[in-house]
Structure formats: C-alpha cells, structure tokens
Design a protein that fits this description.
Blueprint lengths: L1 E2 L20 E2 L2 E2 H10 L6 E5 L3 H7 L5 E5 L6 H9 L7 E6 L2 E4 L3 H8 L7 E6 L4 E2 L7 E3 L5 E3 L4 E9 H5 L8 H9 L4 E5 L3 E4 L4 H12 L3
Parallel strand pairs: 1-6, 4-5, 8-13, 9-14
Antiparallel strand pairs: 2-3, 6-12, 7-14, 8-12, 10-11
Length: 222
C-alpha cells in the first residue's frame, strides 16, 4: 500500500492545487519513485489511498494497475487509512510505503521482504541512520538491538517502508488513528523489528526536500 492521501501542509503553497505525491523531483512525480520500487519487487497488487485532490492522482495513474482506497469523506491518518484498505486485501501481512521520500541505494521493499520472519515479527520497519538521512530534522524514532528488536528512542529514523501483519491493524476499534498506536501495542510484546537501510533516504515532505533529493540523486548517479 502506498500512502498518498495526506494534505501535504508542510509543502505550503505547492500543495494548494496539487497533491504532494505529484510534486516533481528531478522531472518525475514523487509517487512515480514509489511505484518504481514496487515495480522492481515481486509485489503484484498495489493499493493507493486518496483524499486531498485525489482526482489528480486517479488521472495520473490511469494507465497503472493500481487499486484506489478512497478517503474522500475523512482523512483517516496512516493507521486508519491502512485499516480501511484492508477490505481490498486478502493477506496476512502488507508492505506499506510513503509517497514523499526518495531513495538512493538498494530497493527497500525487497530488503524488508528478504528479512521478514512472521514467526518472530508482527512488524518489520526499514530504518535509516542519521548519516544517511537527507532533509529530515528529527532526532530519530527507534533504538535497535543487535537482533533487530526495536524500542522507542532517539537513534534510527523510520523511513515509511515496512511490512506489518494485518490483524493488529484490523483489531483497532477507532477509524482514525496513526500507525504509532499499532506499533506501541506490538512494541510492548517485543514483536517489532527493524533493519537499517544500506543507502541514502531523503524526506521530501517539505519544499527544501525537493532540491536536497535532486542533489542526492545526482550525486548517487552512476
């Protein structure tokens, strides 16, 4: 599932007439970078959620084999958006990916698929170390043990890519909620793991991120 429903308020005027996933970076809309990662993985079914200026995304993706999860009535946040989209899935687990990031390095989707162990894990998060983070001002989200087990703390930053089991999401009674609510429940049971991204990751949730992402891509071009 690709998250594309947000209003993109940090982008200011750029998202008043255009949804954030369509903002161009190096001549290509942000969501196309996310879809390229999906195309380069074994995933066969892709869901994109919609809210802010969703018709523009529908038009842009008209030639793509994607399924839309509509949140026209109310923005449901990450957890609520995923919960609603589960009606379009028939899976025990799902890969989720934010549409406002650009990656330089190996495919993060393939990396989490390769590391996924459902016997030990209810969620597996792709994280990035501070030195490989571009355009992100936070202090980090998680600390990771040698075996990959996560706990909250300033350290590694969540990149917006993960695998998560669907049952813990479906069991939340609220309709509008963040995935942090699900993670906190799973963290208490020692069921959330992480892996560290081997390349660079750029947060393009704000205007400065556009130039930073373009520079990162140019510097990493072979």
């Amino acid at each position: 599932m690709i998250f594309a429903a947000g209003r993109g308020t940090r982008m200011g005027a750029l998202t008043q007439t255009m949804p954030k996933p369509l903002i161009p970076v190096a001549g290509k809309p942000l969501i196309d970078y996310a879809l390229a990662l999906v195309d380069d993985s074994p995933i066969e079914r892709t869901i994109v959620n919609l809210h802010h200026l969703g018709d523009q995304l529908i038009d842009h993706l008209a030639d793509r084999d994607v399924v839309f999860s509509h949140e026209a009535a109310q923005l449901l946040e990450t957890g609520g958006g995923l919960k609603k989209a589960l009606t379009l899935l028939n899976q025990d687990d799902v890969v989720t990916l934010n549409s406002d990031a650009v990656w330089a390095g190996p495919n993060p989707i393939q990396a989490v698929l390769d590391a996924w162990d459902p016997d030990r894990m209810d969620a597996l998060l792709m994280l990035v170390a501070p030195q490989n983070t571009v355009g992100h001002k936070g202090k980090g989200d998680f600390l990771m043990a040698p075996d990959g087990l996560l706990r909250r703390g300033a350290g590694l930053t969540y990149t917006g890519c993960q695998i998560i089991k669907t049952d813990p999401v479906a069991s939340v009674t609220e309709d509008v909620f963040s995935l942090n609510l699900v993670w906190d429940r799973l963290l208490a049971s020692n069921r959330v793991y992480g892996i560290e991204y081997a390349g660079q990751w750029c947060d393009v949730g704000h205007p400065e991120g556009i130039t930073l992402a373009e520079t990162m891509l140019r510097d990493n071009r072979v």
